[in-house]
Amino acid sequence: MLEKAGESSFSGIVNAGTGREVSIMELIAALEKIHGAQHPHVFEKERMGEVYRSAIDPTSAKEKLGWEARTPFYEGLTETYAWYKATFGS
Question: What is the rounded distance in angstroms from the CA atom of residue 46 to the CA atom of residue 11?
Answer without folding.
Answer: 38
